[in-house]
Amino acid sequence: MAILRCTGGRIRYSSRREDNLGKQTELLDLQALDSSLDRLRKERASIAERAEADELCREIEKLQSVLCALEEELHESEREQTRLENELSTIGDKIGREEKKLYGGGVVNPKELASIQQEVGSLNKHRDDIETELLETMETVEQRREKADQVRDRKTATQERVDEKERVFAEKAAALDDQIARVSKDRQATAERVPADLLAVYEKIREQKGGLAAGELLAAEGICGACRVELPAQELERMIGSETLNRCPQCRRILVERG
Ligand SMILES: [Zn+2]
Question: Of 158, 174, 189, which residue is a domain's last?
Fold first, then answer.
C-alpha cells in the first residue's frame, strides 16, 4: 500500500515495506556507531601512557622508600659526626687544662707532675683515636650523602618521565573523548529513528553477543554479515524481502538487508 510522505517540503511516495526496511537499515548504522564507540572506549581505556605512567609511579614509590632508608642512615652518621666533634672538643679542653697545670708552675711535686704527664699522654692517645674515628665517619657521611643524592636524582628524573607520560595521556584521552562525544551524538540521533521495540531487541542481543547485535544479510553471497556463516538456501529465500525481523540461525543476531 502506497502512502504519501512529506519530508522537508519534498513529496515522495513510499511503501510501508520500504518504511519497515528503512527502520531496520537504521540498525546497521546504529551498529556501526556502537562498534565505533566500543572501539573508541576500549582505546581510551588502554592508552599505553596511562599504564606506563602508573608503572613509573610504582618505581618512584620504591625509590622513595630506598631514599628514606638512605636518609635515615645519613642522619645517623651525621649525628655520630656531631657526637665525635663534641667529644674531640671536650678532650681538647681537658688537655688544655692538664697542660696548663703541667707548665703553669703551680705543681712542683715530681710525682704529681709525672701523673699529669701520663694523663696528658693518655688524653692525646684518646684524641688520636677519636680523630681517626671522626675522619672515617665523615667519609661515611660523604658516601651516604652521595648515594642519597643519586637516588633523589633518579626519582626526579622518573617524576619528569611520569609528567611527560601524563601529558601525552591527557592529550590522547582528550582527543578520544572528543571523538566519543561526537559519535555518541550521532548514535543518539540514529537510535531515536529506530522504533522502541526494535531498539530493545537490538540492545538485548548486543549485551548477549559481545556488542555485535546486527549484521548485514549478504544476499548475493548467501551469508550472515555478522558471523560469516553460510545461510541455508531456504532460510535465505525466506529472509530476502521479508518484513519481519530476521535472525541468523547460527549466531542469532539480527540480519538486515540493505535496500
Ligand atoms: Zn550469523
Answer: 189
**Per residue in 25-51, pLDDT tens?**
899 999 999 999 999 999 999 999 999
Q: 65 to each of 32, 69, 151, 186, how far by Cα in Å?
A: 50, 6, 10, 50
Q: Is the pLDDT of residue 234 over 60?
A: yes
Q: Which pLDDT does position 156 carry in this prediction?
A: 98
Q: How much is the mean pLDDT over the chain?
A: 91
In the reported structure, the alpha carbon of residue 215 is separated from the centroid of ligand 1 by a whole-number distance in angstroms of 7
Q: How far is the centre of ligand 1, averaged over its atoms, from the C-alpha of 214 (Å)?
A: 9
59 plus 153 within the same structural domain: yes
The whole domain housing 215 covers 17-43+195-256
Determine the distance separating the centroid of ligand 1 and the alpha carbon of 182, expressed in angstroms: 30
Centre of ligand 1 from the C-alpha of residue 23, in Å = 20
Are residues 145 and 74 in contact, defined by beta-carbon separation less than 8 angstroms? yes
Q: Which residues sit opposite 5 in a β-bridge?
A: 12
Summarize the confidence of residues 54-70 as an average pLDDT: 98
Residue 128's CATH number: 1.10.287
d(CA 241, CA 17): 9
Centre of ligand 1 to C-alpha 97, Å, is 104
Given the C-alpha cell 617524576, which residue does it identify? 159
d(CA 219, ligand 1 centre) in Å: 13
Ligand 1 centroid distance, CA of 36 (Å): 20
- For residue 14, the model assigns a pLDDT of 35
